[in-house]
């Protein structure tokens, strides 16, 4: 089905089946995990059997979410579920191989997402790229269908939407997003507490990472490109978790005058991961990433390329400076 | 008048007079400046004469606010205004001497604020400590009185409330705060743009300051107290502005397990300024501040004490550790 399903069509499937496996993408973020919990607990409160599966399990920074203990890594054998629901996952392979295997017994696939590039790989699809987060689509769905709204669902939706909008700041945030926030508070959300747990409870090693990164920070002479890097030995010394660096690039993206922020990471296998953020659509970092076999969006893109760091860095920076100059001429 | 005035009583004063001087506190933050602009432009659009005066003028980080060019430092002579309106200013002296002199010709003082400690120094007072920001009180007032709502007012209210709630995160944020956000977007607010200008446009020196502070960061052995310091020569070397350090203490306050965060600053006169943040009401940093002649609130307090840093630091840290131990025993 290439058209979006209506809420009622999805409601029909949810009512007619008893067992569900709810999935989201590898390296899950707040919107992925929050969406799984939100829909899972609403369905369970409606009397359904539910499993919540993610290739990488529950990240350390989201263990505070009520109900998060229900997130499992994929079991070795397919689970017994009639319906698989993929949430916040732009392509089916992004679910991960073990997760796809675990969900392989499902008869029906529902695909709910807010990524515009989603190729509609479900039997039933609900793709709304005007929504800033999959959590907000689920809020609309759950309230429209008058499904139960347990506290776990309430808190998970808030965290899903808050983390995907940079705390209600990004351009995709809508009036409806704020109205949803108001409704969740009226439903009993403890807004101070949940934000403290989401944003003010970082492991010390994250602050050590911030210090290590800042000590490598370089700003180009024209002030337009800021970059920093992380050596693999620093990662090992600080015993970093993958989620520890999440969002840190925003520190240098936020420098006045900077148009492109770049994070170079030396991986254990010697490869280099490059994350780029642009503030200006005229400097399309996805195009730059494509030159090196990477990809992404105009304002956020990534590369995985051969090392060593000393070789990768000047190549990528030169390509960025060419793009900056081209944008200045146009 | 010790009771709160009604919106109608305030509306009456606004209608019956033609000239206003609108004030806020020294070292103004987003809520102070935002409130001045919000009310000033609403009154001006209603045909009134308005001056916006602040002891320290407009801070560099708020120059993006439409209408902010109207913020003046106090002129030498009292301005011609029938009504003075103090906004977001907990005590009258916090307006500053030059500002008080500039407003000394006013016949009527209106005092609008959200600080619970405000002693109601106006002829007309509107103190609402349940409001997370003075900007939200003004939103209620302006909409209740059906005053004009120009774009400058809309943007200024958003920034006032966003900065005073840590982007809609703090415990004092209410469902009404979120509903106001929705209404401001429906009135045409560009939410992505205004947040980028508010939060993603720091001068490079602020990131340099962050690096300098992180390089002095120390965490106590029990992980409960985090502190860092700023030498006066670093401040001079980086050519820092007072607002550059605003909010940085939140980086170490956000470390998991930390209950007290402390920022020691060596001032040009050799004195030491100490800022303390507690996450736990049982560790009352105001009490600790009082031991050294400082003051504040249970969760946020400050001291200005004799240097040098080497002497001040161990004294304050010892007092904090005594308070931590006392709270553990109780």
Fold and architecture overview:
- 2 copies of one chain form a homodimer.
- With 330 residues, chain A is an alpha/beta fold.
- Chain A has 2 domains: 7-199, Alpha-Beta Complex (inorganic pyrophosphatase (n-terminal core)), CATH 3.90.1640.10; 205-329, Diaminopimelate Epimerase, Chain A, domain 1.
- Chain A is 39% helix and 18% strand.
- Chain A is globular, with a radius of gyration of 21 Å.
Mean pLDDT of chain A: 95
Please identify the top-level CATH class of the largest domain in chain A: Alpha Beta
Q: Whole-number radius of gyration of chain A?
A: 21 Å
Largest interface: A-B, 48 and 48 residues
* Helical content of chain A (DSSP H or I, runs of 4+): 25-40%
Low-confidence stretches of chain A: none
Instruction: Going across the biggest sheet of chain A, name each strand in turn.
Output: 3-2-1-4-5-6
User: What is the number of independent domains of chain A?
Assistant: 2
Q: Which superfamily, in CATH terms, is the homologous superfamily of the largest domain in chain A?
A: inorganic pyrophosphatase (n-terminal core)
Shape of chain A: globular
Annotated CATH architecture of the largest domain in chain A: Alpha-Beta Complex
The DSSP helix count of chain A reads: 12
Task: Estimate the strand proportion of chain A.
Answer: 15-25%
DSSP strand count of chain A: 12
Question: End-to-end span of chain A in angstroms?
Answer: 42 Å
Specify the oligomeric state.
homodimer
Q: Say what the CATH topology of the largest domain in chain A is.
A: inorganic pyrophosphatase (n-terminal core)
Helix and strand content put the structural class of chain A at: alpha/beta
Largest sheet of chain A: 6 strands, parallel
Domain DDH (chains A, B): 20-159
InterPro entries (chains A, B): DDH_dom, DHH_sf, DHHA1_dom, Oligoribo/pAp-PDE_c-di-AMP_PDE
Domain DHHA1 (chains A, B): 242-325
Pfam families (chains A, B): DHH, DHHA1
């Amino acid at each position: 089905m290439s058209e979006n399903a209506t809420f009622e069509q999805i409601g029909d499937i949810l009512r007619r089946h008893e067992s569900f496996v709810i999935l989201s993408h590898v390296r899950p973020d707040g919107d992925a995990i929050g969406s799984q919990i939100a829909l899972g607990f609403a369905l369970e409160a409606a009397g359904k059997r539910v499993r919540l599966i993610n290739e990488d399990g529950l990240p350390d920074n989201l263990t505070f979410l009520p109900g998060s203990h229900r997130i499992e890594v994929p079991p070795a054998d397919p689970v017994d579920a009639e319906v698989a629901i993929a949430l916040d996952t732009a392509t089916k392979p992004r679910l991960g191989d073990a997760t796809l295997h675990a969900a392989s017994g499902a008869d029906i696939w529902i695909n709910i997402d807010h990524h515009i590039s989603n190729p509609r790989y479900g039997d039933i699809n609900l793709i709304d790229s005007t929504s800033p987060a999959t959590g907000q689509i689920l809020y609309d769905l759950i309230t429209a269908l008058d499904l139960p709204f347990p506290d776990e669902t309430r808190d998970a939706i808030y965290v899903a939407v808050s983390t995907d909008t940079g705390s209600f700041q990004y351009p995709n945030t809508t009036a409806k997003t704020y109205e949803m926030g108001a409704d969740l508070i009226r439903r009993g959300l403890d807004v101070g507490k949940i934000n403290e747990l989401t944003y003010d409870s970082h492991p010390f090693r994250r602050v050590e990472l911030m210090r290590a990164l800042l000590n490598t920070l370089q700003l180009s002479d024209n002030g337009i490109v800021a970059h920093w890097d992380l050596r693999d030995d620093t990662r090992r010394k600080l015993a970093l978790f993958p989620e520890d660096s999440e969002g840190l690039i925003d520190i240098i993206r936020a420098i006045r005058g900077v148009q492109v922020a770049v994070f170079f990471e030396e991986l254990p296998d010697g490869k280099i991961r490059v994350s780029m953020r642009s503030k200006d659509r005229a400097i399309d970092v996805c195009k730059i990433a494509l030159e090196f076999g990477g990809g992404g969006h105009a304002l956020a893109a990534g590369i995985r390329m051969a090392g060593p760091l000393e070789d990768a860095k000047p190549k990528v920076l030169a390509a960025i400076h060419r793009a900056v100059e081209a944008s200045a001429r146009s």
